[in-house]
Amino acid sequence: MKEPKPWVKPALELGPLLLFFAVFMWKRGETVTLWGQDYTALVFATLVFIPVLAVATLIQWKLTGKLAPMQIATLVLVVVFGGLSVWLNDPRFFKMKPTIIYLLFGVVLGYSLLAGKEWLRLVLGEALPMDAEGWRKLTLRMTLLFFALAVANELVWRFMSETTWVYFKTFGMPVVLFVFLMANAGLYKAHALEKTDEGAE
């Protein structure tokens, strides 16, 4: 299978989210009427986001032949909670979706840590070759991060404006995850398999 160009994967992952943001900002403060039903800008943006994310995920699977567990779980929860928001015309379900996703990831990683499993290595092992202790530390840190993000999402959508939540979802969460991964550079270096093979601690 031919490897897709480097920009394709980020475009397929970020494109639907940026489109969601653009549609929301375009219709913010307005009511969109479809099939005799009035929708807020957020619900309308969610209606656009669901099929676009599904198509982007399908294209990525066709191009690479695989999907990460996180991508599959995200798509399922977007369809379920986004669909409920559109069907019931209630944006709260979609706002709760990140909370459910991060709680799910936190619980799964927490269980893997307690059970002595290295599930995170199965997902990131090719990109980050580390020893068992490195994966244990990274799993613990990511578990705490996901629980913190779940709490943060609840606080933002319940106590701040809808626009603030959209900014937080579109830009805040990805930036936090990026900063987290960069902040753990020392961990990756200290537990790299190459150093282990050379006898380094």
Automatic annotation (TrEMBL):
Tell me the domain of life: Bacteria
Spell out the subcellular localization from the entry: Cell inner membrane
A GO cellular component entry from the record = plasma membrane
Q: Which InterPro entries match?
A: YciB
Pfam families assigned: IspA
Residue ranges of the TM segments: 7-27, 39-59, 71-88, 100-120, 140-160, 166-187
Q: What is its main location?
A: membrane
Keyword Membrane, does the record have it? Answer: yes
Going by the UniProt record, its keywords in alphabetical order are:
Cell inner membrane, Cell membrane, Membrane, Transmembrane, Transmembrane helix
Keyword RNA-binding found: no
Membrane-topology annotation of the record: Multi-pass membrane protein
Q: What does this protein do?
A: Plays a role in cell envelope biogenesis, maintenance of cell envelope integrity and membrane homeostasis.
Its family? Belongs to the YciB family.
Name assigned to this protein: Inner membrane-spanning protein YciB
